[in-house]
């Protein structure tokens, strides 16, 4: 579900935004011979096109994976599924797919390796926080129309700004504050939208609970991203693709194991057989829904990790938010969600807030490159 905050990169004397985790693409040294400097003129353009192609591919994976996972998650509930722990489990259970990334980008040992015990403790803590995040998202998706759920998730940018300011020393500008105000207004409009009560067969109380839990999940996810940034900066101190993959894999492993414990401790596992038998579209559809939900979350994760590696975790989070307005449109077409005037206004305000945030991100990158 998805979303990332930024860190910083201070290698090579390059000045970058202190709120971004960026892995710089090595460029030619200023001390190279003139003959060596002429070659990059042509090859630099080719590398630039290749870089944009990779970034576009990663963004495509993130958007498609996140959209598919959200829609399939709502489809699971709409067809008779009711296990919130199973829904949370599926959000991270496909993490073994990421081991393929480690196969192609193996980690290189270094003399300054971080103690395994310290790293393991960080992974456990982050994984447990991720578990709480997953279960809150599962409740929200169960009680809310998918269109409302997706628009509320856009509020993670607001929490992103708050945690970045407090934990990662990100500066607050006019455009960022404008984005915070607009996204907050969008979420509030959805929270008081009485026309959505009962639309998914839930009471007003459960609708408000779903709203608050989704809002809380958005904040928790942003907290996770800021804590990951701090870990990269102060503990891992390596900005490599394998380091990012390890962070994703082992925190997901902890979250998956914790969700599995929750599934058995809650007793929901006893109802899974009956749930599969009573699934409206059949048992095979039930199994395929579970499998492809898990795969879709990992496709989104691959895109997210790729964007962290190629650009920054902040940019990855922005692309994740960009996908959110797409989901309500599919929600209307697939689940026949009601797109009333309040939702349309909330969507437009959300897009406006997103554009303000992207503009600030563009200005920050432009300033960093010219420095």
TrEMBL record:
Q: What keywords tag this UniProt record?
A: Membrane, Transmembrane, Transmembrane helix, Transport
Q: Name one GO molecular function term.
A: purine nucleoside transmembrane transporter activity
Ranges where the record places region Disordered: 1-42
Mode of membrane association: Multi-pass membrane protein
Q: Which residues cross the membrane?
A: 51-73, 85-104, 116-137, 149-167, 173-193, 205-227, 247-265, 286-309, 315-335, 342-363
Q: Coiled-coil segments, which residues? A: none
Any one GO CC term of the record: membrane
Any one Pfam family match given in the protein's UniProt record, by short name:
PUNUT
Ranges of compositional bias, category Low complexity: 1-19
Task: Give the source's domain of life in one word.
Answer: Eukaryota
Full protein name = Probable purine permease
Organism (species): Panicum hallii var. hallii
